[in-house]
Amino acid sequence: MFVDHYLNRSRIIAASQKAMIALDVLPEIEKETKRGRPEKERKNALIAGKSTTRAAQAVGVSPRYVEDAKAIETKAPELAKSVRSGEKTISEAKTRRLSSRKRVLPPVGTLCYA
User: Region 17-34: what's the mean pLDDT?
Assistant: First the structure.
């Protein structure tokens, strides 16, 4: 598999970078994953299970880390680039993304009508 080849020939990779690699593999895994209600086992049945879990297992990280990486890539592509390069971790990117969305509350005692 591509993931094994990539991880074996490269230097030590941080878990955040592994999660970003899992995103590269995710579309192929989603093609193989069975959707909908499970049926009885058949010889040609597609593989059952959550795609992010299978991608996480392929690179050796937590499924939640892959889900977080996917959310960062869709909602903050500029942060995803810095995670992929190793400048930031997923935790740092999540904190940065959440801090940029904080709402400013009016001072206590003032009325606010929307």
Answer: 87
